[in-house]
Each structure stands twice: as structure tokens, then as C-alpha cells.
Design brief:
Order of helices and strands: HEEEEEEHHEEEEEEEEEEEEE
Number of strands: 19
CATH topology of the largest domain: conserved putative lor/sdh protein from methanococcus maripaludis s2 fold
Distance between the termini: 41 Å
Structural class: alpha+beta
Radius of gyration: 38 Å
Number of helices: 3
Shape: elongated
Largest sheet: 6 strands, antiparallel, barrel
Strand content: 35-45%
Number of domains: 3
Length: about 375
């Protein structure tokens, strides 16, 4: 992607080039004398394909990645899986020695055990009182007191159990297991190292068969770049290979650097033969529009005019070769509609133009 000052985008430069070309053509005709020879260049209208593309650089990223974090702080005692290893869900990745996790759990085991016993005793008493109340052997107040005591004990047990399960989870967290299958793209490498709770120990990519291509789209092109458009690209590591993908998203958040406004676009791409790696730079082409087997003329046909003529706003004119006397111009203006404006050709729609007609694409004044 070429970078231009903020006050001149691509569309502005194209408009300026057309205006300058037209002005130069008119000035050339006005300045030529009788000895000057005007030579016209023509191109035949033909049928073919018209493509419009946006060429841009981008960088490759992992399509998705899962961070595996430490639940406990401590010392890395054993590393079972390392960088580039393929793992399955539940595989043991690492063991952590955490004295604090062990002590915290062991200190609470008895609290949890006694809370279970108290709950069971309270439940047994409540059920006994309930039976006696149904047989009208105790008062409703005595029954209600037993019921409230049981509810209180149940609430206390749930609180104790929650704390117990949290401490057991930390104890179990000394054994770090893989939450998903995939390829380890980042791993902690040193046994005996100290880590803190919440540290990222591993990054696991579920797949490398597809990746993400990030591109910054110039504001002059963002109007034609849309979701689901095809993307093709190459990387310097494999210059003969062409990779393909589709646009997923064009963000609405702009980024301005040196007065140049861009918008990030993300494409999902297929990683042929697993050649692509995160961080690679890609030379990409976004295929924004195409028309197949249509009447077309070279884009130069819109950059040249032999004389000034009045046109309506938005009207497109090309100059068609005609039979004329020696003192007349051998071309006549034809108003047309255009379809896809491509990189090299423009699709034209007109009843006055046919395949094989010759269209003016250049003028040279020779003396």
C-alpha cells in the first residue's frame, strides 16, 4: 500500500491526472501549427474480463490461541510438554510445587469434615422432629426450631463447601492440564523457576490449517473493500506459492499515522502445507470487483481528449475513430455508461459502441 499525504488520496490523484491529461491534449491542439502532424493511437474495443483489485501488505497471525495460566504460585518442578508439541485435551503439561496450596487445603480439610458431620446430625434431628410433629407428639414450635436449625446448618455447610472446593481446585492446579487440543506455540521452558498465580505458562493453537491475515486499508479504498471478498497473497519464504482466503471483517476504528488514515481488515486464510507462520509479512491482493466477458476499453481511453466538449456531471465520454476528411479530426465523442472500473480496463455499456471499434487512447504532436 502506497502512503500519500492526508490531503491527497488515490481518487484525488486520479481526478487530477485526468484533468491534466485533458488540459494537455487541448493545449497541444491549440499550439500546433500547419506544419504539425497529429498522430492518433487507437485500441480496439474487445470482450474480456475486467478486474478491480486493491494491493496491500499485511501480516499473518494465529487464527485463535488459548492461554493456559497458572492457578497457583510456586516452583516449576516438572515440564512434560514443550514448544511445538502436539497435545490433546487433558494432557499433563506441567507440575508445580506449591507449599501454600497444600497448606491451605490441609488446614481446611477438618473444617469441611466437621461441617458435613454437623449437617448430617442436624438433618437427622430435623427429620425425627418432623415425624414426631406429624404424629402430634411435639409442639409446632419445637418442630419449627428444628427446621430453622437445619436450614442454618445447611447454609453454613454450603459456605464451607465452596471454600473447600476452591482450595481443592488450587491444590489440583499444581498439575497443569491442557484445556484443549492443538499445537503448543509458546511454553514456559525452565524447570525450577518461580511463577506467580495467573502467569501464562502455555499458548495452544487449536489449528494451524487456517490463519488470520491482518491488513491496513487506506481510506481511499475502504469504500470498496467488503466482507467475503477473495484475497490472494504471497510470502517471501515461498515466493512461488499463492495462498488464498476471504475477508471476515473491516473494522470501523480508524488509525492515523503521518496524516494517513487506515482501517484494519482481517481475512481468514488457508495454510497450505502448513507453510505459513505467525508474523510473516504478506503481499496481498483483495479482489473487490469483476465482470467477465464484457465489452471493455483500456483505462487510457478516459485520460485523453482531442478538444474541449461540454459534458453533464458524471457523464463519461470516449472518442471513437470515424471516417473524416483530411482537415477534420478522425474521431467523434461517444457518451457511454461504465460498469466495473478495473485495474487496466473499464467495462463499457453503449449501443453506439461495438466490439472491433477503435477508441482513442493517445495523441502525439510531431513537427
Amino acid at each position: 500500500m502506497s502512503l500519500m499525504p492526508g490531503f491527497l488520496n488515490k481518487k484525488s490523484i486520479i481526478v487530477i491526472l485526468i484533468a491534466v491529461a485533458a488540459l494537455l491534449s487541448v493545449m497541444a491542439f491549440r499550439s500546433c501549427d500547419k506544419e504539425s502532424v497529429v498522430k492518433y493511437s487507437f485500441s480496439e474495443v474487445n470482450k474480456g474480463d475486467v478486474f478491480r483489485t486493491v494491493n496491500i501488505n499485511g501480516s499473518l497471525e494465529l487464527y485463535s490461541v488459548e492461554n493456559v495460566r497458572s492457578l497457583v504460585g510456586g516452583e516449576v518442578s516438572v515440564i512434560h510438554k514443550r514448544y511445538n508439541d502436539v497435545v490433546a485435551v487433558g494432557d499433563l503439561l506441567m507440575e508445580i510445587y506449591s507449599e501454600s496450596a497444600v497448606e491451605s487445603y490441609e488446614q481446611y480439610v477438618d473444617t469441611y469434615r466437621f461441617a458435613r458431620i454437623d449437617l448430617q446430625n442436624s438433618r437427622d434431628l430435623f427429620l425425627t422432629k418432623k415425624k414426631l410433629f406429624e404424629e402430634e407428639l411435639i409442639s409446632s414450635m419445637e418442630y419449627e426450631n428444628a427446621r430453622l436449625a437445619y436450614q442454618k446448618q445447611l447454609s453454613n455447610f454450603k459456605r464451607v463447601e465452596k471454600t473447600y472446593l476452591q482450595r481443592k481446585e488450587l491444590l489440583d492446579g499444581r498439575m497443569v492440564h491442557s484445556p484443549s487440543g492443538g499445537l503448543i506455540v509458546k511454553s514456559y521452558r525452565e524447570e525450577g523457576g518461580e511463577i506467580s498465580s495467573g502467569s501464562v505458562l502455555y499458548q495452544i493453537a487449536p489449528t494451524l490449517e487456517k490463519m488470520r491475515l491482518s491488513m491496513n486499508i487506506d481510506e481511499s479504498d475502504v469504500g470498496v473493500v467488503k466482507k467475503d471478498q477473495k484475497v490472494s497473497f504471497t510470502v517471501s519464504a515461498y515466493p512461488e506459492e499463492v495462498f488464498y482466503g476471504e475477508l471476515d471483517l473491516v473494522t470501523m476504528s480508524p488509525e492515523t499515522i503521518d496524516n494517513v488514515v487506515t482501517y484494519e481488515a482481517l481475512a481468514t486464510v488457508r495454510n497450505k502445507n502448513n507453510y505459513l507462520k505467525p508474523g510473516m509479512t504478506a503481499s496481498a491482493t483483495i479482489h473487490v470487483a469483476e465482470s467477465k466477458k464484457v465489452m471493455r476499453v483500456p483505462n487510457q481511453a478516459f485520460l485523453v481528449t482531442p478538444k474541449e466538449i461540454e459534458t453533464k456531471p458524471g457523464e463519461k465520454v470516449i472518442w471513437k475513430k470515424i471516417s473524416a476528411a483530411d482537415d477534420q479530426m478522425p474521431v467523434a465523442p461517444v457518451s457511454i455508461k461504465v460498469g466495473v472500473s478495473g485495474d487496466a480496463y473499464t467495462e463499457i455499456i453503449s449501443d453506439e459502441i461495438e466490439v472491433g471499434d477503435e477508441i482513442l487512447v493517445g495523441i502525439v504532436i510531431e513537427k
